[in-house]
Amino acid sequence: MFNLILFGPPGSGKGTQSEKLIERYGLKHISTGDLLRSEIARQTALGQEAQKFMDKGQLVPDEVVIGMISSALDENPQAKGFLFDGFPRTAAQAEALDKLLDLKNSSIAVMLALDVSEDELIKRLEKRGQTSGRSDDTNHQVIKARIVEYHAKTAPVADYYRNFNKVVMIKGEGSIDGIFNGLCTEIDKRLREKQETAPLSGE
Ligand code: ADP
Hints:
Elements lengths: L2 E5 L6 H12 L2 E4 H10 L3 H10 L7 H13 L7 E4 L5 H13 L4 E8 L2 H12 L10 H23 L4 E5 L4 H22 L6
Parallel strand pairs: 1-3, 1-4, 2-3, 4-5
Helix pairs in contact: 1-8, 2-3, 4-5, 6-7
Bound molecules: adenosine-5'-diphosphate.
């Protein structure tokens, strides 16, 4: 399996780039934001609980999100690899993900981190709010709260993977295709390394 994390603050373009990456590399896309919004739309108990946090721009509790990821991994035993988008968002989630992947004899190959200035993030989120139908994109206070949560709880996740030398920063401003090419260059490099080190009869 080849697993990667697309990392970055809200509005950094993870969703847009994920769509292009899964198409090129045939990975299974796991977006915790999308999974949570689907639970809300289906009015499940999990969705109702999660909505209370999302409406305030706060992170949903770790155990809720980790449970969802565990199910998503189990539901896709044939996947060539996973692209994690919006997860892990706390150090506890990162540790849980490593354990879940370890159980499947797998691991994270790389974390690609999109770097976007704060002014640009706010501009993009407010613009998305005009069309996305997402209530957390229309309220300025909620947008601010999400960015505060990102700095407090999510940015340290990059340090966790930095300890394993797995983080690559990519400039997340410029054309969508330019950013995509930057991401692909890094992925291709790691896929080549993986091929070179794979045992002849191994995966
Ligand atoms: P964005 O990154 O643009 O804010 P997402 O769709 O990734 O959008 O997330 C929307 C909201 O869903 C977050 O503000 C948060 O409340 C919740 N959420 C998504 N992923 C996680 C996660 N891994 N842990 C906790 N909460 C999450």
